[in-house]
Design a protein that fits this description.
The complex is a heterodimer of chains A (about 70) and B (about 250).
Chain A lengths: L1 H14 L3 H21 L3 H25 L1
Helix pairs in contact in A: 2-3
Chain B lengths: L2 H32 L2 H26 L4 H27 L8 H14 L6 H28 L5 H22 L8 H23 L9 H31 L1
Helix pairs in contact in B: 1-2, 1-4, 1-5, 1-6, 1-7, 2-5, 3-7, 3-8, 5-6, 7-8
The chains are: A mainly alpha (about 70), B mainly alpha (about 250).
């Protein structure tokens, strides 16, 4: 049981290291998707927005690590 | 299928798999040299058999998912996976966290196996250590192959990249017979983090219906922007690290 749990934990940690970063990325993708589906944002603009958003999230995460 | 897509897929798959296989090799080698090759190989082959079974069971299910949905989901996972590696690689390159050390990982595993040597289940525990290492790193390799290959119908090409990494690591490992600590792991992780994030942004955009200018070539554009950002981040963080060091 503990072996299976440790495998699941490892699998989770494949995608989530800094929990804030992962959560912010998911919120960004959800928000951009909503803008495309509900507000008619052009998909290419959505792609660019994703790129800029990811860079901003990474910058914030690195700054947080620096303060620690 | 363009050369840009083929080259970027096989390179991303090869480099990412290479890093994972090196880490698994360190543990399997520790088991083999501390106990014997029997539990090391039994654990390794059991994990490989489980991985093959998982791929055979779940692989065909991917064909049932509409392409655009798959691009969106895989793109999202790739962004999470890639940014995690990129963040860690930047922090390691600037000295904020320690570099991954295969010699240290090997020594830690060897110490643990030596502590278990008196245990009646020592061979079983050693085999499980090899099994777990190969399974966990193998799952990452399978994910990488599916992620960089499936959304473009190039799973076989991505698989060839991963297989190439396995062959190279095993060939070098068989010759040197020690952990591959000379591999510039952080540089590889940096490159892979950049590539996987670029792939992730491309696929998520495609999943949303984006018609990227230049099609696959735009992956290189995304890669260039991410690389430029990371270069600036490393420069700034290194300067900050030096300032903090000087102030202490």
């Amino acid at each position: 049981m503990s072996f299976a749990l440790s495998v699941l934990k490892e699998l989770f940690s494949l995608f989530v290291d800094d929990g804030n970063l992962a959560l912010q990325v998911l919120v960004l993708i959800a928000a951009v998707t909503a803008l495309v589906r509900l507000a008619g944002l052009a998909p290419l603009a959505a792609g660019m927005l994703l790129l800029l958003g990811c860079l901003a999230i990474l910058a914030v995460s690195l700054r947080r690590a620096l303060r620690r | 299928m363009t050369w840009t897509a083929i080259t970027s897929t096989v390179t991303a798959s090869f480099l990412a798999s290479f890093v994972e296989v090196v880490e698994a090799f360190t543990i399997v080698l520790a088991v083999a040299l501390t106990r014997s090759w029997r539990p090391a190989l039994l654990g390794t082959f059991a994990a490989l058999a489980l991985l093959v079974a998982l791929v055979l069971v779940f692989g065909p299910l991917f064909a049932l998912i509409p392409l655009q949905v798959m691009q969106y989901v895989i793109g999202t996972l790739l962004i999470l996976f890639g940014m995690r590696w990129l963040r860690k690689a930047i922090l390691r390159a600037t000295g904020f966290i320690a570099l991954h050390d295969e010699e240290a990982a090997f020594a830690k595993e060897t110490d643990e196996l030596k502590r278990q040597a008196a245990d009646k289940r020592a061979d079983w525990l050693a085999g499980m250590a090899a099994f777990k290492a190969v399974l966990l790193e193998g799952v990452e390799v399978v994910f990488i192959v599916i992620a960089v290959g499936t959304a473009h119908g190039m799973t076989a090409i991505a698989g060839a990249g991963a297989l190439g990494a396995v062959v190279v690591v095993l060939a070098v490992g068989a010759v040197v017979h020690r952990p591959l600590s000379q591999v510039p792991e952080n540089a590889l992780k940096f490159a892979v983090g950049l590539m996987l994030t670029a792939f992730g942004l491309f696929w998520t955009g495609e999943g949303l219906g984006a018609d990227w200018p230049g099609a696959d070539l735009s992956i290189l554009g995304l890669l260039a922007v991410l690389a430029a950002f990371s270069y600036v981040a490393v420069r700034m963080l290194r300067a900050a690290h030096l300032r903090i060091g000087a102030a202490q």
